[in-house]
Design goal:
about 700 residues; alpha/beta; 7-stranded parallel sheet; 6-stranded parallel sheet; 23 helices; about 20% strand; globular
């Protein structure tokens, strides 16, 4: 049971005064939570501001520099409302201080609201950017206003948080203040010597300091409050991973010692030769599974390095001893693709394979579940549907999880509960630098595939400014007339007023005028059947240009697609660009990737695109990506709901990661069930960072 002292942290935000379901849903989105019910007070406490508004510059009207942020202490002289029926004419308020006069300008403003906020004859504080026209000062829509008599309504230093459309900074700030007021006292869960040596505040003081920065230095990753919270976050992560490992190691695995017959057959029917990396990975995995200890291995393979083939050999080893294996993918498209790759080869060796997803029809599902329960099916491929309660396995020896970062630790445990204690192989196409492997997969041994299968040619990458788009379309027209297939990637699904990016739907319409019925469209807002149909049309050649959003980023395999155009490439992260580029170059013909960007590029944008031009090495790209913009999106992009760190910046906090890992190991060696005084406090740490699944492990023994 969670200690009752922590109850104030776990109230749902809809219980806060003034926060109804609609606002709560917006706050949930800003916090990256799935829904309002999931969003608790503690999520607000641990939301770091990402910049600071400093309103301390008060130069007076006459000395205000063009476009610089200033605070002015003004006397309000006169209101000049927009003429009736002409709302396009701005509402002006004339005011002055001892140095000069200024016009405060508002568009589409409500007169009665402005008369209350800035009454004639009153002294007021306003903050915003001053513009000068013909020697006259003007401020359009001040960002903060208050009566001089109420300075508490006018913070001179204000933290700025990530927002979402429709959520005002004021509302979010009020919610954070409410959460801060109900924050309880906490025991110290860190080693006191370490805290002293690092000059760290206690947890509650660090949270309060996080939300009340005094200047820019308080916003830096190595400011004491941020460093303290980053360490807490790392320790919570490492401790929960160590608990999972402890639990996993306690459950004895079942040694898998096959005779190699099926694997030999597979080698003879494979349409390609395994690379050295694949052979080594298969050797590591089989070696792990032959031991009574459970395997827990991460298989990192760059895009197109042949991870599925490695998984197939591991699954075949289980079939040799009459056991079962599952391969779980994050999406139906990917599950079907794995099935299409594995089924013909497995069937040729006489092994039964089934596909089970959320969309399997009821009648087929019943038959599949019977075959799984009887042990007739040896290899089962699917999505989350694989670990629903209705699925009963005859003898599950191996669970292969594709794209691990889409599944949380608790989902791994649910899958683990399905067998006596199946071995686990986790595959990811996101090349992850060592520091991130430690932080996200600290409980695993790692195999890496660094070569591409033989016969694959390098992908030629070019960067072009967006104003040359007509040339690209012309080249594409020529390529399609010669039977080529191409992806065209856009950052957005549909037009949005807040963005100037070309949407997938608009680009599809545009390319439809050039390619007619040969232009297809696939995006994340389509349902599974629509996506599948669009992909099928592209695979079969019914369409030859597929306009898509990043829904095609992971694992989509159309070997004869040889061109990919990525529009607004400057808006994508490096790891994501690399993943997208990996959709081509999967067959035996030369492929090309065209990165269209809108100039002028920032320094980071230039660096990103030049790395893409120069290198196809996913591991090098991942290291560079980490340098350029931190770890937030390396473990899968934000769009796919990745739980990136909140306070941790691995560039700044790399030293803390190693310490947290050692600390977690030491804690569990000395107090495996967290029952000592510090152990009880560490349970609180796990609750605070929403690592409840780790505590459930403790209870389960």
């Amino acid at each position: 049971m969670r200690p009752s002292s922590l109850d104030p942290l776990f109230v749902t935000i809809t219980s806060f005064t003034g926060i109804g379901p609609k606002i709560a849903a917006l706050i949930a989105r800003a916090l990256g939570r799935e829904n309002a019910e999931e969003t608790k007070a503690v999520d607000l406490l641990l939301l770091p501001p990402h910049r600071l508004i400093d309103r301390r510059n008060q130069p007076g009207v006459a000395h205000a520099l063009e476009r610089s942020l200033v605070t002015l202490n003004l006397h309000v002289d006169q209101h000049l409302p927009s003429p009736r029926g002409r709302s396009n004419v701005p509402y002006k308020i004339l005011a002055h201080d001892e140095t000069g006069e200024i016009a405060l300008t508002f568009f589409h403003a409500k007169q009665n609201w402005l008369e209350r906020a800035l009454p004639v004859g009153e002294k007021v504080l306003v903050s915003g950017k001053v513009e000068w026209f013909n020697g006259r000062a003007s401020m359009v829509h001040p960002d903060r206003m208050a009566l001089a008599a109420n300075p508490e309504d006018f913070p001179m230093i204000e933290p700025v948080y990530p927002l979402t459309a429709g959520l005002s900074p004021k509302l979010l700030q009020r919610a954070i203040d409410t959460a801060l007021q109900s924050m309880p006292e906490f025991p110290e869960w860190l080693d006191l010597t370490f805290v002293k040596r690092q000059s760290m505040p206690d947890f509650a003081a660090a949270v309060r300091a996080l939300h009340a920065p005094r200047d820019e230095t308080d916003m830096e990753p190595n400011a004491p409050a941020r460093r303290r919270l980053a360490y807490d976050e790392l320790l919570a992560g490492q401790l929960s991973l160590a608990l999972v490992r402890q639990k996993v190691r306690k459950l004895q695995g079942k040694p898998v010692r096959g005779n190699g017959k099926l694997r030999t057959q597979l080698l003879s029917i494979l349409p390609f030769r395994l690379t050295d990396g694949q052979q080594n990975a298969v050797r590591d995995i089989i070696g792990d599974m032959e031991s009574p200890d459970r395997m827990l291995r991460l298989l990192q393979g760059d895009v197109g390095s042949g991870k599925t083939a490695v998984a197939l050999f591991a699954m075949a080893a289980c079939a040799e001893v009459d056991g079962q294996s599952v391969l779980m993918a994050p999406t139906e498209i990917l599950a079907q693709q794995h099935y299409a790759t594995i089924e013909p080869m497995a069937t040729a060796t006489g092994v039964g394979v089934d596909l089970l997803t959320g969309r399997t029809k009821a009648k087929d599902r019943k038959a599949i579940l019977e075959r799984i329960a009887s042990g007739k099916t040896k290899m089962i491929i699917g999505t989350h549907a694989l670990f629903q309660d209705t699925v009963v396995y005859s003898d599950l020896l191996l669970a292969v999880v594709d794209e691990q970062h889409r599944f949380g630790v608790h989902q791994r445990l649910r899958l683990t509960a399905k067998g006596s204690a199946p071995h686990m192989l986790v595959m990811t196409a996101t090349p992850i630098p060592r520091t991130l492997v430690l932080s996200a997969f600290g409980d695993m041994d790692v195999s890496r595939l660094t070569e591409k299968p033989s016969g694959r040619l390098p992908i030629k990458t070019a960067t072009l400014e967006l104003d040359r788009i007509d040339d690209v379309v012309e080249r594409l027209r020529d390529a399609v007339s010669r039977g080529k297939k191409a992806y065209w990637i856009c950052p957005l699904v549909e037009d949005s007023e807040v963005s100037d990016l070309m949407s997938a739907e608009q680009r599809h319409e545009h390319l439809g005028r050039v390619f007619g019925a040969l232009a297809g469209l696939v995006h994340g807002r389509m349902n599974s059947a629509e996506k599948e149909a669009a992909m099928q049309d592209f695979k079969s050649g019914k369409t030859r240009v597929l306009v898509a959003t990043t829904v095609i980023e992971v694992g989509v395999d159309v070997p004869d697609a040889s061109i990919i155009v990525i529009e607004h490439a400057e808006r994508f992260g490096l790891a994501q660009l690399h993943q997208l580029r990996g959709r081509v170059g999967r067959g035996d013909e030369a492929s090309s990737c065209i990165l269209l960007y809108k100039g002028p590029l920032s320094d980071v944008g230039k660096a990103r695109l030049s790395i893409m031009r120069d290198s196809e090495d996913g591991f090098r790209i991942a290291e560079e990506d980490l340098k350029l913009r931190g770890e937030g999106e390396l473990l899968g992009t934000r769009q796919s709901g990745t739980p990136g760190f909140r306070l941790v910046d691995l560039q700044a906090h790399g030293d803390l990661l190693e310490t947290a890992r050692d600390d977690a190991r030491y804690i569990l060696e000395m107090d495996g069930n967290l029952v000592t005084e510090r152990g009880q406090a560490l349970r609180m740490l796990l609750y605070v960072w929403r690592r409840d699944e780790a505590i459930r492990l403790l209870r389960a023994g």
